[in-house]
Amino acid sequence: MSESITKPNPYFKEYLPQEYKDIVEKEAFKKNKSFLDLGVVKELLEEHPLCAGCNLALSLKLILVALPNPEDTIIVGSTGCSSLALAQVGIHNIHSLFGNQNAVATGLKRALSIRFPDKVKDVVVMAGDGATADIGLDMTLHSWFRKEKITTIMFDNEIYANTGGQESGMTPCGRVVNMAPKGKKFSKINMPEIAKTSGCDYVAAVSVAKPKSVFSSVRKAILVAREIGPTYVQIFTPCPTNLKIKSSEAIIVAEEKVKQGEYPISEYISPQAEEYLKNLGELSQ
Amino acid sequence: MKKEISIRMSGLGGQGVVTAAHILGQAAVLEKKNATVNPFFGAEKRLAPAESYVRISESEIYDVGEVVYPDIIMIYHPDVILKGKSYTMPFYSGIRKNGIIIANYTTEFSLDETDKEELKKSNVKLYFVPATKIALEVGNTELSTNIAMLGYLAGITDVVSLDSLKQSAYERFAGKTKFVASATTAALDESVKKQYAKIEQLISSNNAILEKAYKEAKSIIS
Amino acid sequence: MAGNNLKEVSAEYLLFEAKREEKFITGSEAVKEAILRANVDLAISYPITPQSESMHLVGDLYAEGYVKDYFRGENEFAVMSEVAGAAMAGVRVFTATCGPGTLRAFENFPMWAGSRLPIVMAFMTRGVNAPLTIQPDTIEMSFLLDTGMIMLHAENAQDLYDMILLAYDVAEQTSVHLPVGVFVDGFFVTHTRQKVKVIVEDVKLKSYDPSRSPMPTIDMETPPFRYMRDPFVMKSNFISYAAHASWQQEVIAAMYRSKKYLEKYLGSLIEQTNTDAEIQIVASGTAVSQARAAAKILKEEGIEVGIIKIKSIRPFPTEEIKDALKNAEKIVIPEFNRAGWLAKEVASTIKNNDRIVHGPRVYGGMTMPPEIIVEVIKKGTLIGV
Predict the structure, then answer these.
(1) Of A74, A89, A146, the CB nearest to C218
(2) Nearest by CB to C69, which of A74, A96, A114?
(3) ipTM exceeding 0.90, yes/no
(4) What are the extents of the domains in chain B?
(5) CA distance C228 to chain A (A)
(6) What CATH number should be reported for the domain whose range is C2-211?
(7) The model scores a pTM over 0.90
(8) What is the pLDDT of residues C277-308, one digit of tens each?
(9) Touching chains, A (3+ CB pairs < 8 A)
(10) What is the pLDDT of residues A118-168, one digit of tens each?
(11) How far is CA A209 from CA A48, A59, A239, B10, C227, in A?
(12) Which CATH superfamily is domain B4-221 in?
């Protein structure tokens, strides 16, 4: 987009809400921000309606500040807690149905390539574990098989949080949750491995407790998706409400589980992606 | 010609009943008549029952779908009669009074008495014709059985002329537009074309088969 | 791209003035001919009988350079979401499916309408399981009546061709901007070779202009970039209820606003023959053709019947039907489905609806011999037919 599009008509300016004026004046669309800019620049996420201490909300803030090119980025979401927050984001985003996010993103990305052949338009899917690995798994995988140039980010809270804490495919084996009254009977789906096998050129599993790694994996994923192929980032965002822990301790859980080896952290970069990122140099940091 | 002629073609998948129906319908259109052509609506499998339908008329044709009450039935394979490999049983079901049946045979066989009686009741004329034999003799492939059947049709009835059939068959195999009835039919076409290497050869072979079958038919009815 | 050699023209020129020639083609080939002129950016396919042929041929158009992008999706639900994503990003799309595919994709259709996406799609109607069937049947139309989608029902390949082209112009009107489903009876039309007048001039429909959309195009070029202050979904308060309700009302209003644009191309939403006859047949799709064949037989026997062909199911021609049937003594409604959705629509529209004979109905794939309609008309009832 051209920056001038966001500039309000001077005659309308006084009627616009303060948040809108902030978007224009406080560099919400500034390129290549650092996560250290959080709280200094205008954030793209407006006051969100998620629970206090929500790790998904925190990781969303980190993702948004990591977008290499927010003014030309489109987000495709899905049903779930994340859909409530995504509607509050100051860039174009879609919620259409539960589970179809990678299919919508496929059509969207191809359409944008037709309309803007000489422009970079980053398409980033952000959805929960239920949307990505259960109800929408076929569409997640097929977008990867087809090598669609989109980034898929999963908020992995290991549960259907928005509907009241039911078992998802990403719930660890043995955990007792709704709809798994005797504990989950099979292992957590190994999505990073599946992503790698399915053709993703960049795959990362990170914890929200490590902002720097969230930031850098998201940035790398989006850059690789521009030129090389599909990418996948899985962010561990344990849900304080469903885990029944204090809001202030949610992020500690995200850190502890990783330390205890209960949540595996990983990164895979395909040789082509590696080469590409090397050539980009600092931009990809 | 009767105001509207309905033709049912019954055969086995791969015998070219869909192609034959297309050639016949197109031949009628070349004669400035109206025609509609459609295959039986099923999943296509080689050697499974296959049917197609042609309606030809001087006026507008409305009726669609399978021909329930045919004036002419063309049977491409004896199994349709002998083994009931057909969607319409018995093979003459629905035939109109004074109808015509043209049936391909490879070895001699006779109908059972009930069938004979039924056909007699409706005053149906039944012609057994060696279409596969002619296809092999003249065209050196049984894949051209469908072409021979059309030659017999033109010889026995006045539905379309031999010349129109020749022209239509030419357009069907040499025409610029890729023929589409089904993906399976398109693949078979390629195999037919390969056998002949050159389309010209196929065209002249088709013409020879049409002529031979037409002549034979004329000698049958005279 | 070969498509660049075609000159862009208005929908009016394309449909009313462009030079046409008669071709002996199948309904599937008529779809190809229509898409050749529709200037489609992206077409997405998924195989299902009897639709597949049409989308193979649209694929050929992509290979030949008349469609900019094309691929096979993973299932119908995904395909309908993929075309939705593309339409949101401001391009013209096309897809097709039928029967079970329609039902698998179903959740998308009200979403399309609610998102005001001008998607044009062909439904080559077929029966739904169980037991397994691949045969023609219009039952899926019964399920789709209230999705907010505009629904046109083609009688033959000519209708199919014309309706696909006009559908783009209607769908893309700012005051409409809704999906249009062009329905055609599978096999009966898709696999039947018949004469169709198709455009032979080197022209195509002018490109889709996303700036005419009543919704912001999702491309980060069209403000506002954040158009919801709060996600109004899932909130239990009056504002959220009212937001949803008024939005839905607007979708239906937009659907009815399409009427004048449809009429520009279709004339009336209904077509009548023999308006004064005491017996009237009301039908849509292939059932109209069977009614015409029946009327021909009856005329030879000295019995006059009128035929009312309904071309648009949504918007439904309520006033036209009321008027056309005001003097009818007997109304026969032949249908290719078990539900009898058209008979229900007509029955809820007219006065004294005991004049209606709810049938004959044929389903499971068989054709409806005109003789059956003839018999029902002669008896005036379905009993004993």
Answers:
(1) A74
(2) A114
(3) yes
(4) 4-221
(5) 6
(6) 3.40.50.970
(7) yes
(8) 999 999 999 999 999 999 999 999 999 999 99
(9) C
(10) 999 999 999 999 999 999 999 999 999 999 999 999 999 999 999 999 999
(11) 20, 9, 13, 72, 31
(12) Pyruvate-ferredoxin oxidoreductase, PFOR, domain III (3.40.920.10)
